[in-house]
Amino acid sequence: MPTIVEIVCCREIPAATEKQPSGCITRNVRFHTLCLDEVVLDVVFHTLQDHGVRVENTR
């Protein structure tokens, strides 16, 4: 059975608002590089796997 994807605003996450007290995290200059760049995501994925963290590849 498919799961429901939950949409959460960054303003609802205390850790996010501590790091960026105002505005949306997607407006942060580093957001697109760190969170959306495929090369960066691939490196993080393999680094986590190398450290024994089980990460699901959804591609």
UniProtKB/TrEMBL annotation:
<protein>
    <submittedName>
        <fullName>Uncharacterized protein</fullName>
    </submittedName>
</protein>
